């Protein structure tokens, strides 16, 4: 039995409400990690990562507004609308302002999420524009197509048609192209970030105070010690997969013309907001507390994304071995850092732990 538009809207409201509850929990924890340190002390204003705070608040507003719009739409369709066709006729109003606002919500949420991902990629690569040139072009392409889709939806000749229904020859190709650009951008930027962190972790093994055998087994094993960069990599992969999976499911339901597209699209905005919060929360937690307790071996400090200084022959490591302090501020928050002075002739390594006020 095919899913009707009324059932799809009710299911979408239910899924959006469930995931909004999950989002609310992660949002509170995310704000705590951004504004307070691990000891519960409010961070100095100058050390707070305000761009991430603004993004978290914007996603919270969009997610909450989307649930409110869905609730109001269902109340109008099932209670207040008394015209012919019942609730289905109310939901098929493509040019209805509620449907247009819901489309804007999803579009702006994806633009913010993809933009933050490209920004993180740019910072991880030490602000090299050449690396993120293609992701930026994909983001700009999605922005242009999104504006065009909203315009076509608002000026459609047939206001009584479903977004997934026939007769949308001008709208369907634009939505398909925009969704494809967003998916490719998400996968590409995530892959670039993961590759960069993996390279830095591999290069820093020369300076790390731990055995190579433990590093090779650590990434997917909970019984062995993992470096902080391996923890960051795993967090980014898992959070990226969470959003990519729901985006791909929504895209497939749209291509097949199923009314379940309305349900999955309502959940998509909530899940992309949850994925953003989870990255900050999980990277903000101290790796020593989460992972070192799971191994019987004594904890030995590992190296985060930080500038390594080599005084051999008066030269410094190459660009792939260096990560700026600003990169660390973007990638790691509230964790113990290690300063290293390495000299091959003395074979001496000095470590000094201290707490930092950094945010992702």
From TrEMBL:
TM region positions: 10-28, 48-71, 129-151, 171-195, 231-255, 267-285
Region (Disordered) residue spans: 339-360
Keyword list, A-Z: Membrane, Transmembrane, Transmembrane helix
Domain of life: Eukaryota
Record's protein name: Uncharacterized protein
Species in which this protein is naturally found: Lentinula raphanica
Taxonomic placement: Eukaryota, Fungi, Dikarya, Basidiomycota, Agaricomycotina
């Amino acid at each position: 039995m095919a899913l009707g538009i009324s059932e799809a809207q009710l299911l979408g409201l239910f899924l959006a409400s469930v995931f909004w509850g999950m989002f609310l929990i992660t949002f509170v924890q995310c704000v705590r990690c951004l504004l307070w340190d691990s000891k519960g002390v409010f961070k100095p204003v100058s050390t707070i990562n305000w761009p991430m705070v603004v993004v978290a608040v914007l996603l919270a507003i969009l997610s909450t507004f989307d649930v409110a719009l869905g609730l109001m739409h269902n109340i109008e369709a099932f209670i207040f609308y008394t015209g012919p066709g019942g609730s289905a006729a109310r939901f098929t109003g493509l040019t209805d302002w509620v449907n247009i606002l819901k489309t804007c919500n999803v579009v702006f949420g994806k633009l913010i999420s993809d933009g933050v991902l490209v920004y993180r990629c740019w910072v991880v690569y030490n602000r090299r524009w050449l690396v993120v040139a293609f992701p930026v072009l994909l983001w700009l392409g999605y922005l242009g197509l999104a504006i065009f889709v909203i315009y076509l939806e608002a000026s459609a000749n047939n206001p009584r048609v479903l977004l997934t229904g026939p007769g949308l020859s001008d709208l369907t190709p634009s939505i398909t192209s925009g969704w494809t650009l967003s998916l490719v951008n998400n996968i590409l930027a995530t892959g670039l970030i993961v590759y960069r962190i993996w390279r830095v972790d591999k290069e820093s093994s020369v300076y790390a105070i731990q055995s190579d055998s433990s590093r090779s087994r650590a990434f997917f094993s909970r019984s062995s010690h993992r470096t902080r960069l391996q923890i960051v990599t795993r967090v980014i992969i898992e959070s990226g997969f969470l959003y990519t999976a729901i985006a791909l499911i929504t895209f497939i339901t749209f291509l097949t013309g199923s009314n379940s597209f309305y349900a999955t699209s309502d959940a998509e905005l909530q899940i992309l907001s949850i994925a953003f919060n989870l990255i900050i929360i999980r990277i903000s937690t101290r790796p020593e507390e989460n992972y070192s307790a799971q191994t019987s071996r004594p904890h030995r400090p590992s190296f985060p994304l930080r500038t390594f200084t080599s005084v051999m022959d008066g030269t410094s490591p190459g660009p792939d071995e260096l990560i700026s302090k600003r990169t660390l501020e973007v990638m790691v928050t509230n964790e113990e850092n290690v300063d290293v002075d390495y000299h091959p002739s003395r074979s001496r390594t000095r470590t000094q732990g201290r707490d930092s006020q950094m945010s992702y």
